[in-house]
Amino acid sequence: MPIDYRIDHQKHLVVARGRGVVTGEDIFGYQREVWSEADVNGYNELVDMREVRRIEVPTPERMRELALVSSKSDSPSRPSKFAIVAPQELVFKLGQMYEGYRNLDARSTKKVGVFRSMKEALAYLGLDDISEAHSS
Question: Whole-prediction pTM value?
Answer without folding.
Answer: 0.91
